[in-house]
Specification:
With 694 residues, the protein is an alpha+beta fold. Helices cover 37% and strands 18% of the residues. It contains 24 helices and 25 strands. Strands 2, 3, 4, 5, 10, 19 and 20 form a 7-stranded mixed beta sheet that branches. Strands 13-12-24-23-22 form a 5-stranded antiparallel beta sheet, sandwiched between helices. Strands 1-8-9 form a 3-stranded antiparallel beta sheet. A hairpin with a 5-residue loop joins β8 and β9. α11 packs antiparallel against α24, α16 crosses α20 and α23 runs parallel beside α24. The termini are far apart.
């Protein structure tokens, strides 16, 4: 274009010059004179003023035309070279780019893999439903949108918004509505002229056959977030608009459950409209996950929690306000039961959760059903913590199996001005360490804490804390679920950091040690940590808990098998473990009404009770147990928030679940799997405020 403009400019200039010369008449020969007529009858004298000038101007014009010709030739030469490069040298590259601009590749969503329990009972399934899909340009067709609105009973504006949603791709078909009625499907199929651009496809929705059963464990799915798109796992090809796991097992094993997406290659025009489907690859469903959980044991545990806490489907009308139960194989770490109450129904999230339901799920008035209390709930460990403290005392010589302790109900080991009480205010009298564990005497453990406190110069300021950490307290257990809490084993450093804005409150005191020794003060643990600790006492080994049994592909072939992660306890003498086990056995045989719990099911087990203090509340009811005593197979950890007395509230449920685990392992558990409904009613809890009772 620049060359053409230059040519035009030179031509115009040439025309101007030519007209200027022609105005003086024909050019005379060189050297001749041109007479000038000045007036009629007069002949002007010859001046020859233009002699030689016409030839000079003509030469200049020729040189300009030569330069112009060279320039034009250079321009067209460059164009020819560029055309040669495009048409010949880079033909393959530009041809491929042209083809890619003409073709578009669209993803077709694959159904997620299913989730089963250890016995093959399906916990999460897929339901194939009829879904109305629309081409992108249907949003501009008011008549079609109005017909869909009338037929499906969905507001016109909603129909149009759904079709305008381009989050799944500019050319991708848009989901209008799913799980259509048969009559609606038939009407659309039978009247294609009335619904141009509308097709009926089969898609898979998540289905939960047992309602809210294990909801906190299974988790839920939802539309992928921007953060997840930016931080997607290696090998994952999900895109905007896809449904992926957002919590629980659905999130932990998303890469396994997420299927291989299909592809549709289509021909599009400049406006992005689809004119032809070139090829199509069907999606492949994701792999199936088989959990170690028993749906039967899980259902029993959740039923008992509901009967205790919400007997009329209303939290606050029973005993306690929430609770958790963990049952685990002691030698493999495989979880058999992980019950958190209250729970939620994951089906609420299918197709998108309403704001009302989301607010209710995150409302403290409804006791946060989305919280998996087994891994995220942190509670004072109470007397269940005394087992680890006893082993630490034996290891460092702060006590022995024959040490005599005198419990009068009140202890003043740190001075008369700082008395601390035993839960049995009338005292236990003279007892040894074993009886201190069996009777859960606080004074015994106050004495152990005092010895650690005054021996800090020789054994270290955090010797007690470091030792109890061997059993998993104060750290993550390693379970695959996200959201696990590490708990707290308080140290001087921890307290100073926690109270850094109030240094006077951050001073480590002697009372911090004595409170910690009975699982109070700032000690916080999760039910899963307690299960791992008691499995360690039972076996002398520390396991990493897991929910996975195996993964199978669509052909039913096992592609992944769970491998237990087990390690030996370090620096825990066998003699000390044997002593502790015998003492825990003594709790099951000698402590109040506890023996009746085990006798009811004919179980020879070991256990420890606990009641965590909560000012003006009924406290935390704890019960940790394993069985059989001589060859431990299962451990159960139970906590009831505001439940009160551990043996009387948490104990009966824990032992019944333990019995179910033993029968499950033997293959004799014969109970059905209940369909569980979420609890959405609550009233103000009227506790007794009894405080600690052990």
């Amino acid at each position: 274009m620049a060359g053409v403009a230059l040519v035009l400019a030179l031509v115009i200039r040439h025309a101007h010059i030519k007209s200027r010369w022609s105005s003086t008449g024909p050019l005379a020969p060189l050297g001749s004179e041109v007479p000038t007529i000045s007036a009629p009858g007069e002949v002007a004298p010859s001046t020859n003023t233009h002699q030689g000038k016409p030839r000079k101007e003509n030469n200049q014009l020729k040189s300009r035309f030569v330069a112009l010709s060279i320039m034009v030739a250079a321009i067209f030469g460059s164009l020819a070279a560029k055309l040669w490069s495009i048409q010949v040298l880079n033909y393959s590259t530009y041809s491929a780019q042209s083809e890619s601009n003409r073709l578009a590749t669209l993803k077709t969503v694959a159904a997620r893999g299913r989730i089963f329990d250890a016995e093959g009972i399906v916990l999460v399934d897929n339901k194939t439903v009829a879904t109305a899909m629309a081409d992108a340009d249907v949003a501009d067709d008011r008549n079609v949108c109005m017909r869909l609105s009338t037929l499906l009973g969905i507001p016109y504006t909603v129909i149009r918004q759904r079709i305008q949603d381009s989050s799944s791709g500019a050319q991708a078909r848009r989901k209008v509505a799913s799980d259509l009625k048969d009559r609606d499907v038939a009407f659309i199929v039978e009247h294609p002229d009335s619904f141009p651009g509308i097709t009926i496809e089969e898609t898979a929705n998540r289905v939960y056959p047992y309602g809210a059963l294990a909801g906190a464990v299974l988790g839920y799915t939802g539309t992928v977030t921007d953060y997840q798109l930016e931080n997607k796992a290696e090998g994952m090809d999900y895109s905007s608009g896809d449904e992926i796991g957002q919590s629980g097992v659905e999130l932990a094993y998303n890469s396994v459950l997420f299927g291989a997406q299909g592809e549709r290659v289509v021909v599009t025009d400049a406006d992005g409209l689809v004119h032809e489907v070139v090829s199509e690859t069907k999606p492949t469903q994701g792999n199936d996950v088989y959990l170690s959980i028993s749906a039967r044991v899980q259902g029993l545990a959740e039923q008992r929690l509901q009967e205790l806490i919400a007997p009329n489907n209303i939290i606050g009308e029973g005993t306690g306000t929430s609770g958790a139960i963990v049952a685990m194989e002691v030698d493999t770490g495989r979880i058999v039961c992980m019950a958190s109450f209250p729970s939620f129904d994951p089906s609420t999230f299918v197709g998108g959760i309403s704001q009302e339901a989301w607010d209710r799920y995150n409302d403290t008035e409804h006791y946060n059903p989305l919280l998996n209390r087994c891994i995220s709930g942190m509670y004072p460990a109470a007397s269940t913590f005394k087992s680890a403290v006893a082993l630490a005392g034996l290891e460092y010589g702060m006590c022995s199996t024959s040490t005599d302790f005198n419990c009068t109900g009140e202890w003043t080991g740190f001075g008369e001005d700082y008395p601390q009480m035993c839960w049995q205010t009338e005292g236990h009298g003279h007892i040894n360490l074993r009886d201190g564990i069996v009777l859960s005497c606080d004074v015994v453990f106050y004495e152990i804490a005092k010895n650690f406190y005054y021996s800090s110069a020789s054994v270290g300021e955090t010797a007690l804390q470091d030792y109890v950490r061997k059993f998993g307290y104060g750290s993550l257990t390693g379970i695959e679920l996200q959201g696990e809490a590490a708990g707290v084993v308080p140290t001087p450093e921890w307290k100073a950091e926690t109270w850094k804005n109030a240094p006077e409150e951050g001073q480590w005191q002697a009372g911090d040690m004595s409170n910690m020794s009975i699982g109070q003060g700032n000690v916080l643990v999760t039910p899963l940590q307690t299960a791992v600790a008691y499995a360690s006492y039972a076996t002398g080994k520390k396991v990493t808990p897991t929910l996975l049994k195996q993964v199978r592909n669509s052909n039913g072939e096992v592609v992944v098998e769970s491998t237990p992660k087990v390690e030996e306890l370090q620096d825990v003498p066998q003699a000390n473990l044997d002593f502790l086990r015998e003492a825990l056995h003594g709790v099951a045989l000698e402590d109040g009404n506890v023996p009746n719990l085990f006798a009811r099911y004919g179980i020879d087990g070991a256990c420890k009770t606990g009641t965590g203090e909560w000012a003006d509340h009924d406290g935390y009811s704890w019960f940790a147990t394993y069985a059989p005593f001589d060859q431990p197979k299962y451990v159960v950890s139970t906590v009831i928030v505001e439940g009160g007395f551990g043996a009387g509230v948490a104990g009966p449920i824990a032992v019944e679940v333990l019995d179910a685990c033993l029968k499950f392992g033997e293959g004799t558990l014969d109970i059905s799997v209940p369909v569980t409904k979420e609890i959405d009613g609550s009233v103000e809890y009227q506790g007794t405020g009894a405080g600690r009772m052990e």
